[in-house]
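Chapter summary example.
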Amino acid sequence: MQKQVILDKNNYVQSVSDEKQEGSMAVEVTGYQAQLLGFITNKIFWDTQANALKFPPDYPATDEQKIEMKYKGDMEDIKNDNANLSNQLKDLQNKFRYQK
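The structure predicted for these 100 residues follows.
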């Protein structure tokens, strides 16, 4: 999934949004990473050499938080996949109707 991030002068994520904002850049993240962005924004670093976000290995701190965020991220991915499949089905149904 894609998120918009604004970095501070040290390349740490300052803010996160679903919508493009002035000074933001698009990044691809998994559902789990998207959840982390909401919890620990200022600890996530933009690595210019790797052209990717670097997440701290020790966050979230507890196993319970990791499990909770994993399932929230998985659910978000499933919702997005379902929306895409629904749109594809509608497109196919419309094409089939017009071919008759």
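To summarize the output: DSSP finds two helices and five strands in the chain.
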